[in-house]
Structures are given as structure tokens and as C-alpha cells.
Design a protein that fits this description.
The protein is mainly α. It is 65% helix and 1% strand.
Length: 350
Amino acid sequence: MALGAVAEPPVRRRGSDYAQLSRRISQAGLLERRPSSYVARIVLTLGAFVAGWVAVFLVGDSWWQLPLAAVMAVATTQVAFLGHDAGHRQMFRRRGPSELVGLVAGNMTVGISYGWWVDKHNRHHANPNHEDEDPDVGAGALVWTPEQALETRGFGRWMAQRQAYLFFPMLFLEGLNLHVASIRAIVGRGSDGRYTTPMRHRAVEAGLLVAHTAGYVALLLAVMSPGKALLFAAVHQGLWGLYMGCAFAPNHKGMPMPTAEEELDFLRKQVLTSRNVRGSRLVDTALGGLNYQIEHHLFPNMPRSNLRRAQPIVRAYCAEQGVSYAETGLVESYRQALGHLHEVGRPLRG
């Protein structure tokens, strides 16, 4: 469906549409923080993460470490979801506790820069799916528009032609990409000598990343042979990247990509570019609440556990306003995302 084909309400009401929805959500109490609930979630998630590493230590130099590496990939992703929630201040109103959880979950536990991720993710939320403003759809290993595809050369063009088929295999490298991007963000400077990525606690983040890497390598080499340690790291980091990519891919890929010429109000900018994934509470847990992408983009500081309750309110309001509300199953969301990637590469195949 073309962006311009969406039914629009009277122009005089466009500026108030989001405010009306926000009042309904606020009156339902869905913007209230739930710190006690989040404390319990943090304790359980980090507890499971630590228990997994205890199991790694106890199993020792055994090939059973490889299934444990897969388990740890799941645990690592769940901790990363905590960092995501902390970055949006879904847990606590105050910055201090939120940043503490973010630094522990991101830098120390997962091994990615919390400050880099917050900066990048906030820019994504401000202009989702906007080719010039959203860092998540900038040209890179994958291309998201035919124009980006036509600008590729050499091996990049070969990949762009086949990117729909390469998408899931490439996700096995996403974990490595996140680690490298974090290091670059911490040390990277522009030609003027200034750091390219704004970061409140650069020295702390650097120290935590060093501690994470040293602890990770030391633990693996202490309990298993170098060969098994290398295989464990490959399985763990590869499956973590795959899991992360599978959690984020359904959210916007294949949805409309507004341009600078299209003036959309906040409600439509967030709803029309996002896709929800239907499912049970198991899906909620597996995707870290990101399956309610529309509600999350409209109210990014809403606690994760309130998103399910907000959905019927948002969906009904969008129907009232004539705003298209995209919702599909998990498998279908991947089909749509891959279909978009395949279509983008069509000019090169022709």
C-alpha cells in the first residue's frame, strides 16, 4: 500500500491526533512505570544468565559445551532486551538507575556499548524507515531501496542481487558487527579530533567492554581447550546475532519508507512504518515485547508489560482515524521483509 493511499482525517485535526491517543493511554494508566516488576525481571534474567555461565564452568572441557553455547545465546539476547528497555527509561523515571542497568546489561554483560546503542536507536525512533535519517536503513551490507542497490559496486552489488537469500546467514555475523561498532563508537574521532558518537560515560564504557572481553576469554580458556573455546564462542556469538536479528527484522523491514517530501505527523510517521507481530505471551517474551512495535514507537517509555494492554486501544484509535495498522504472524513478517529485500535487488538482476 502506497504511503499516499492511506485515508486521512480532516486537516484541522491532524495536529491533535496523537494527543488524543496519548490521553486515552494515560487515562488507562499504561504510562506508569512498574519498577518492582522490572526489578523482578532483572533479577530473574541476570540470574538465568549467571546460572548459564556456572553451568559452562561445571561442564568443563566437553563437547556438551556447544549446546550450552546455544542456551547462552538465548540468555544473552534476553539481557540485551533489558538494555533496550533501560535505554528507553521504561524501568525507572530517573536517568541514574536507567543508565546503571543499561551499562551493566550492555557493556559488562553483553559486550556492546550502551551509549552508542542509545544514540543510534534514538535516531531510529525519531525517523523510522527514513532513508536519510534512520541509521537502520542506511546502505551497508544490505540495501533497502532500489537507489541504494544501483549505487553498489563489485562484491556489494553481487550481494545486493542475492540479499534476500543471504539475509539469515548474514545474521550469524551480526553479533561480531555489534561488538566492532561499539569499539569504533568509543574510540572513533572525526577530522576535527572530536568523538563522532556522543557518550556520557565514555571511560566507564571502555573499561566495562575491556572487562567483559577479558572475562569472556579467560573463562572459556580456563574450562575448555582452545579449540572448544573457539567453537563455543562461534556458536554463542553467531546464534546471539541471529536471535537479535530475528527479533528486530519484523519491525520495519518491508514497511513504507517516507521521504523528505512526505510530511507525516508523529502518529502516522510511527504507525505507518511499523509492523506488529501477533502471538501469545511466549512470543512477547521471545521478542522482548518488540512484537508490539507500533505501540512501542508511539510510547517508547511505556513498560514492556503494558504494551499488550495498550494494543487494542491503539488499534481501535487507528481505525477511527483511518490510519493503516499493520499486524501479521511471525513467519509472514519474515516473508514480507525478505520479499522487500528481494524486490530492492530487482534492478540489478534485470
